[in-house]
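An example makes the point: we print one protein in full, the chain in one-letter code, the fold tokenised, without further comment:
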Amino acid sequence: MPLVRSPRSTDHSILSEMLAARLQQLEIENGGTERFQRKLGLARGTYYTIARGIGNPTFRTIERIASVLNMSVFELLGFNNDDARRAMRKSGLDLDKVVAAIEKKNYAQRALARQTRSRKLPS
């Protein structure tokens, strides 16, 4: 079995590069780096590693960035929803159904969190 090398911190992925390029574009549209970074609500170090294409953001972080910017993850990465629909259709998935299922799940999780917070703890 051939040895597989461990990725080095200087290795870049296409996804990281796409996200970094898009964030740099959005920085310009949103008043500069500092203002944009504060708008996203990310720690400075986290933001800079992602914006330089060397970070490894979680999907949750990418989703949060897209949500703050009122766009889908596809739009954040520079795709439009029609591109996403075509790509998902090739795999037998329907983008609208997937989005609806995610929204329903998120709504249920938020409702559960609200219920949990509203319960008083026993004295």
